[in-house]
Protein 1
Amino acid sequence: MRPPEFWKADVEGRDRAVVLKALLTPVAWAYAAVAAQRQRTTISRHAPTPVICIGNFTVGGAGKTPIGRAIRAKLGPHAHTLSRGYGGRAIGPLRVTPDMEASEVGDEPLLHARDGPAWVARDRYAGALAAAEAGAHVIVMDDGFQNPLLAKDLCIVAVDPGYGVGNGEVFPAGPLRERLSDGLARADAIVMLHNTWSGDTPEQPQWLNAFSKPVLHASLSPAGEAPSGPLVGFAGLARPEKFFDTLEAIGADIVDVVPYPDHHPYSDDDLNWLAQMAQERHATLITTEKDAARLSPAWRARVAVLPVAARFADEGALDALLAPIQSKITAAHGQA
């Protein structure tokens, strides 16, 4: 599903859905209370290796996966990633290989598996144990910030500055997974992942004024080039417009775009319709790495892919944030 308009921070008129929001507010209070109770009463278990969690405050994507991939690259070849495997049927713990299908393990773990060892597990603690037994010196967990079962050594929260925390309300009255104050209290750092980057110092949102820990800035940068000629872009992301904006920013010749819901499972009907649209416009289909992971090999060969990577504005600040983890790795193993 696409997030409703009234979840956004600045909406007017009918999109504010005042009556609906009022009806949902008591449900949101209950949801927030249950989330807080779970954090207070669950006994977290520690893995044999350090765990870095890349999470977010809101329902839907905020750039966790590219941030996680960038951080993993700094931690050395013995860094493993751990995901729940959203959209896949595997319960795990299961080690993911790039040749697996998204229907089995989810789309994001397939991206992580291209970088090195990757795991999916509904039980995060069991997944962390499996990774450690397989030689992980550090675990980078994609999502799971609100899951208290596995203790974390470092919690980094990804935020899309264009969306922020929406209207600041807890689900279903808003996009937050828990009360913002509770999430901020557990976060060790926040990464504002901009869709494009400028040299101007970004203005800090008001909701971050009381946060005294590091706030880092990064941007999504193309890690390849779009093909020349007319293009029809499609993407099934929490906010697919970010991909379309990236295509425009690099000067791609976009003749049409088609958004889909996050983790959309593309059917042959979907893809035949997209192919017909592209043919009528004498264009090439293009999508994201994450979407391409959900395509069959035959369709993947017919669609161009624009990979992106998270580039940090201050690499030194990121290194400083990771330094205590690096020290633990060195103390235990000599090298990452």
Note: The two ends are 40 Å apart (CA to CA).
Protein 2
Amino acid sequence: MANITDKIIVEKNDDIGHLILNQPNKRNAISLEMWQGIESAAENFSDDNEIRVVVLSGAGDKAFSAGADISQFEENRTSKEATDHYNHIVKVALDALDHLNKPTIAMIQGFCVGGGASVATHCDLRIAAENARFAIPPAKLGLAYRWEDVYPLVQLIGPTFAREILYTGRLFTAAEALQMGLVNRVVPTGELESYVADYASTIAGNAPLTVHAIKQTVQETLKDPQDRNLPLIEELVEACFASDDYREGQAAFMEKRKPNFKGR
């Protein structure tokens, strides 16, 4: 799988995909080209049937991402037309993460700020090192976030903590993020990579059709009731019951061995 841009590293390690934000000299600030690279990488991972889990991270040990690349603001976010174009590209990238059909894990160490926090909140799981720091600082920049920027945060941690994060714009510790439900787990910094690798392998070892059904079902529960595609969920449930993997899971349980799921 080729890199989309030199600032986005895309790797494949057996059934685990890796998307690495690669601008460590700027704490992995996300440029316009990187947003486009995120979209392309997410679509490529969705199309790769060998991939079962995708891990997102930042290059180096200083940051997951410190946010949008401010050095491009004068060019890309001055006029309304340019800002609208930029916002559209960001939205398309985040939508691609949302629709990536495999579980996604954000592996976070160091700074996870602004646009970086948006990328993390659009992943299914967030596992943070103890040195992780989180902030969403539009109030410090004179910006206002759009509805689609705020809504995922409110869904994730609720309105009270969302207000606190956005009103203050301050840096929150990993422990505070865990308390708010912004992250799933906090682990010692030196153990982050091995912990995430084990977690990803655990998920990848489970039945892919079941994991996909779970991901889709959770996504449907987050929609307004009238927008939920309940027939699709029934189809996914029936496909699991009719699958070779279901029979393999039963056999492995009876034989007291690890199942070998094929995703069919």
Note: The beta strands are 8-13, 16-21, 53-58, 63-65, 104-108, 111-113, 125-129, 133-135, 172-173, 185-187.
